[in-house]
Specification:
By secondary structure, the protein is mainly alpha-helical. 69% of the residues lie in helices and 1% in strands.
Length: 711
């Protein structure tokens, strides 16, 4: 047998990061080089050649669209007409510096604000920015627009074909639908275990439930698989994950039954219906047809559970019923959300309220997403303003000083500006070092080779292969060094070049990075961390208001109508959206090596907002009009006190997260397990009282997790 003794073949394989980078590098190099050489040497069109190369490089090298090659190809198809529009606008606005700057301000903001649409639009935005930047510089030659569009179209077409068919990527991770299906399967097993003695879950089931629940957290899901888009299916899939996590949490904390004839008649039937609904949901998420019969049976069992109290029901039994009701509600939410995620607007389960988005069309949902983030408290808005101002300033400087290859300055501003001043500063330092190294190599090469384009033409493809392999893996320093050499070889073929081309490249990168550093320092310099604290604190204050309003209405009774949502729902929902977007950006920002790890459980904070919304709607929004009698005096006073205590805990945590000048420096414990009303059993308390107490008790558990007082 041949081979090296003692060395196994598997050890010679590239690490996964390098293997993925090599595959992408081959695709972008073939697409960019093929288009460039076709137009430059085949049709003698430098303009079309430039646009063919930069279109492919922009959308594959500069952009970071997550997913496999075929997923990226699907994302790139609708990008082609957007590139036509941007090239056309940039071409005509380049007639004057002021018009190009104004266009840069508007286009820069709009494209950066596209990040509200999820990881794929956010990943495509930098490449689209370049599609406006490239034609927005002189000379003003609108008659060359046709060549520009043809070149860009061919470059993008070659890239799409390469992404779709060349060196297919391995699937980056388990699809989110499968993760949700596995969690639903486990929820069904847990519910089945709880229908028989000893009516508790074993250690193995508890560990599996916690692991599968944690696996649905966005931070543990690959970007390409996160349901973060504004569409019906993406929203519903995210809703499915939240409801499934809630269901698993409710099942793992369900106490054993106190016994008694009434208890034996009701709760096992509900849990069996929960089990069947979970299994049906898992089957539906895996692409098998679901009839909805299991959900219908669960709705019927839940209706029995929410009926009038049995004459012999003890307070302990009522507490148990309330806990099982929480389980049933979470299972129904999971089942309905999963059906919408699979069938979209055709899902018969679509209903207003919790599933307000189910009947809306894509333009309406996009408008709600965009308008919801149109304010300075949105991190998406902050990022869009920051990058638009930086690009407009860079375009102004490049236009006034008539910098040679001024678009390199804007490219540096675009690629080196980060969401925090510290990260921008460290990135610029490394990038300038890499650019300097690349410039020295380029200057020596140009001085040695001169104007012999044959050498540059032969060296460009292998250099691109190395550049697009090492850059994504080694970091920004290597990327800038290698890209400096790539662009030098490109422009040396387009026109005679001297060693001064390297000097221009270095000066442009220096100027562009300086602009990025200035705006990174002036515009929200601390990134998402402080905004996350503020937004979560705002969300908790809104949740506290909802808790107080809900318990007050429960105590007072009155007419109830099947309205879309409970009072205060929209305000809390908007605050929750702001907190979730801030958390998403916070997760994407690298933390300083010398900074302590953030031990704050932000996921618990976000879940508390959802739990507040769902519980308030369940308690105050009936399926049909009804008149609810007021609670007896003692239950009314007890539920009001508990609600006030939960709201106070939320306010204490919000003050700790977003302190003001006179906030006490010593942290105050927010736990209330010694608060007698949580265990109170006031005489004559109806089932509604215990349902409210169970909801409030789960919210206090959330508050304690946020405060770090409970694991």
């Amino acid at each position: 047998m041949g081979g090296i003794p003692g060395v196994r073949l598997s050890k010679a394989r590239l690490p996964p990061a390098y293997a993925a980078a090599v595959r992408r590098s081959v695709r972008v190099t073939l697409a960019a080089a093929a288009g460039f050489y076709l137009f430059l040497y085949g049709f003698d069109s430098p303009v079309a050649a430039t646009y063919a190369l930069f279109a492919a490089v922009a959308m594959a090298g500069l952009s970071h669209i997550p997913g496999t090659g075929r997923q990226r190809a699907a994302t790139l198809l609708p990008v082609v007409p957007a590139c036509w529009l941007l090239i056309t606008i940039g071409t005509y606005l380049s007639v004057r510096t002021w018009s190009a700057v104004l266009g840069m301000l508007v286009v820069g903001f709009v494209l950066a604000f596209m990040a509200v649409g999820g990881p794929r639009p956010a990943g495509a935005a930098p490449g689209l920015q370049l599609m406006y930047i490239l034609p927005s510089f002189p000379p003003y030659v609108p008659e060359s627009l046709g060549e520009r569009l043809v070149g860009a179209t061919v470059g993008l077409a070659l890239l799409i074909l390469a992404e779709a068919f060349l060196l297919p990527d391995r699937v980056p991770g388990v699809p989110y639908r499968e993760l949700a299906a596995r969690a639903a399967d486990q929820a069904g097993r847990c519910a089945d275990d709880l229908t028989s003695a000893p009516y508790t879950l074993g250690d193995t089931a508890l560990r599996a439930a916690r692991e599968l629940s944690g696996g649905l957290r966005s931070s543990r899901v690959p970007e390409a698989e996160r349901p973060a888009g504004p569409g019906v299916r993406a929203r519903a899939l995210a809703h499915t994950g939240l409801a499934t996590r809630t269901l698993l949490g409710r099942l793992t904390s369900l106490p054993p039954p106190p016994g008694g004839p009434a208890e034996a008649r009701t709760w096992p039937e509900v849990l069996r219906a929960v089990r069947d609904a979970c299994l049906e949901t898992a089957s539906l998420l895996r692409g098998r047809d679901g009839s909805g019969d299991a959900r219908s049976r669960l709705q019927e069992a839940r209706g029995v559970l929410t009926g009038g109290a049995e004459p012999d029901a003890t307070p302990a039994a009522l507490r148990r019923h309330a806990a099982v009701l929480e389980v049933a509600d979470a299972a129904l939410a999971m089942s309905m959300a999963a059906e919408i995620a699979v069938r979209g607007r055709d899902a018969p389960a679509a209903a207003p309220g919790r599933f307000w988005y189910a009947r809306m069309r894509a333009p309406q949902l996009w408008w709600r997403r965009l308008s919801g983030h149109a304010g300075q408290r949105s991190v998406f808005f902050q990022n869009a303003v920051r990058i638009a101002l930086a690009l407009a300033a860079a375009r102004t400087i490049a236009g006034l000083d008539t910098l040679p290859h001024g678009f390199w300055m804007l490219l540096a501003t675009l690629t080196l500006t980060r969401t925090t001043a510290r990260e921008t500063r460290s990135t610029v330092r490394v990038a300038l070092t890499g650019t300097l190294v690349g410039a020295v190599v380029v200057a020596a090469l140009l001085a040695l080779v001169g104007t012999d384009t044959t050498v540059y033409a032969a060296a460009l493809p292998p250099l691109m292969l190395v550049a697009f392999t090492l850059g994504p893996v080694k970091g920004v320093g290597w990327a800038q060094a290698m890209f400096t050499m790539v662009v030098a070889l490109v422009f040396a073929q387009l026109a005679p070049a001297t060693w001064q081309l390297a000097e221009f490249r270095l000066l442009d990168v220096l100027a562009g990075s300086a602009v990025g550093a200035v705006f990174g320092l002036l515009a929200w310099p601390k990134g998402a961390h402080d905004e996350l604290r503020r937004s979560v604190a705002t969300m908790l204050r809104s949740a506290a208001e909802t808790v107080v309003a809900t318990t007050s209405q429960l105590a007072a009774g009155g007419a109830r109508a099947p309205v879309t949502t409970s009072p205060g729902h929209r305000s809390l929902q908007h605050a929750l959206i702001m907190a979730e977007s801030a958390y998403a950006q916070y997760r994407s920002e690298p933390k300083a090596l010398d900074a302590p790890n953030d031990t704050q459980d932000w996921q618990a904070a976000l879940l508390s907002g959802h739990h507040t919304l769902w519980g308030a709607d369940r308690l105050l929004v009936p399926p049909e009009p009804a008149v609810v009698p007021p609670l007896p005096q003692e239950p009314a006073e007890a539920v009001t006190r508990i609600g006030d205590r939960v709201a106070a805990g939320m306010l204490l945590v919000s003050a700790r997260l977003d302190p003001v000048g006179d906030t006490p420096g010593t942290a105050v414990a927010v736990g209330a397990r010694d608060f007698a009303d949580f265990a109170a059993e006031p005489p004559g308390a109806p089932r509604l009282y215990y349902a409210a107490v169970e909801w409030l008790d789960s919210l206090m558990t959330d508050v304690e997790r946020i405060a770090g007082q409970r694991k």
